[in-house]
Specification:
Blueprint: H1 3-18, H2 33-42, H3 60-72, H4 79-92, E1 102-106, E2 112-116, E3 119-130, E4 137-142, E5 145-150, E6 155-157, E7 167-178, E8 182-184, H5 193-223, E9 227-228, E10 231-232, H6 237-266, H7 271-296, H8 307-317, H9 324-348
Parallel strand pairs: 1-4
Antiparallel strand pairs: 2-3, 3-7, 4-5, 5-8, 6-7, 9-10
Length: 349
Amino acid sequence: MNDVTEALIEAVADACERYPSTTEAGGDTVWNLALWGALDQIGVTLLSVPETTGGSGGDLQMAVAVLEVLGQHSAAVPYAETALQAAWMLAECGGPIPPGPLAAAVAGSAVSMVENSDSWVLNGTLRRVPWARHAEHIIVLIGGRIVTIRRGDVTIAQGTNMAGEPRDDVLLQHITVAADCVRDVPEASVVSESTFNARGALARAAMIAGAARRALELSVQYAAQRQQFGRTVNAFQAVQQQMASMAGEVLLCKIAAGAAALSLDTDSAGTVAVAAAKTSTAQSAGTVARIAHQVHGAIGFTDEHLLRLSTTRLWAWREEAGSETQWARELGALSLATGADGLWPALVD
């Protein structure tokens, strides 16, 4: 890690501590506008998007470092959706990047898009779009086109994931979009549904790494305080073994996310590394959450305890942007496709 990335991590961590995210009484996440403003001021909300297209520059490795910090602090902001997906798609197509938080989605077969004179008419539903209700614009990949939609032009059916983060259905009820809000994906561009999903999976892997580290920190602190049989529980060998296992999983998550970011930085189709990262971090998420709750006992399951903020995200994020099973199958298919002579180079690359 270079000095620039270290300084960036410190700045983002400081912003997260100054503007901590909160939850409502029912457990739903509260949109952290103050933190988003601080991140924007630091200049990371468009990190990894080239400066020539309106971004902040940097690479995916820097963006992953930021995502780990945000995951560690359970930050209620759509950083991944804005920087790694929405702004990236617009930049690839030479389109202007609107200010403010962005949401991103790939339209399925349930969404139609028909040209009408100097505009386009969209109809259908985008399912479980992260942070849609708080985004200024929703950037959608529809076939070979990128469409910029104003949030005020659509109907939002609110939903949440296990951690209470917004996962909304966006209802496109025969909305009209101006022609200048629709961009063709250039023939040489890497923008596709698969690369969109890969960047989403990379983001979830990085955030899992951060949330896992926070769960470990809380467990270490609690084990040093909790008394049992006249001594703290961290003095028991069985607990020490569990904590060591947990620490190993946390480190694995960090390494896997970093390796996947490096792979995508050097090869936009670095799907093998992403599939491996999402599969392994999803597995680690379950292990870390289980051990953390075992260490904390019943108190860790309460809404008031900080551990819940991390473990519910671990459980939610491991299923998003492709589940462990989906990415494991993808990894298996990619491994078979390399053939006998290509398997080992694919793994070590």
